[in-house]
Amino acid sequence: MTTKTLIYRIKTSYILLLFPVLFSASVDARQLDDVVLPDNVTLDGTSEPLQLNGMGYRTKFVFNLYVGGLYTETKVDSRDAVQALKGPKRVLMHMVYDEISHKKMADAWREGFEENSSDEQFSKLESRLSTFISYFPDLKEGDIVLLDYIPATGTVVSFNGEAKAAIEGVDFYSALLDVWLGEEPADDDLKEAMLGATED
Asked: CATH number for the domain including 92?
């Protein structure tokens, strides 16, 4: 075998190995500007894959704060349909703003829970919400927050792959979802995006 033939075969093998990776990335992920989210994920402790239901920007004034993605067992297009699903769910937050302080996040979470819960509901959630808020550091561009519901466990919060202690109760995750999907969502456009209304 000549040196030229050997080099050709090596190059050909490399391209054939690389092609499935490139193809998979283009088919199994969706992109919003520089943020790429996988189309399917399986949460730790579960066996059923979740689909990316929709993704969009959380904006405030003229600034994009993060890309939010909602993962569900099946495609849904309404808040009630999401809440009716009994299996695992995920909300992913990929931060794109320079920095959001712990205090600002705490205020946003508390406001979101209060505006989408009755007084009675909020009183039942408040201590767990305080625990949830305590997990949040200052968030910086590129940080990834995962908010997972695992039926046997509860709400698992992860920052850049590091999980915190789970928060019990399906009622907590339902209220958490309503921060984005409730009657008073944090961002109307993001709500529509998460529910797939802006998908091609």
From this structure: 3.50.70.10
- The DSSP line for 11-63 is HHHHHHHHHHHHHHHHHSEEEETTEEEESEE--TT--S-EEEEEEEEEEETTE
Rounded CA-CA distance 77/195 in Å is 5
Identify the residue whose tokens are 């907590």: 172
| Residue 98 shares a structural domain with residue 17 | no
**What is the value of pTM for the model shown?**
0.85
Shared-domain flag, residues 56 and 143? yes
Q: Residue 198: pLDDT band by 50, 70, 90 thresholds?
A: low
| Per-residue model confidence as pLDDT tens digits over 66-87 | 999 999 999 999 999 999 999 9
* Domain count within the chain: 2
Structural domain boundaries enclosing 58? 33-194
CA neighbor of 113 nearest in space, from 140, 93, 132, 135? 132
Decide if 90 contacts 71 (C-beta within 8 A): yes
CA dist., res. 155 & res. 160, Å (int): 16
pLDDT tens column, 154-192: 999 999 999 999 999 999 999 999 999 999 999 999 999
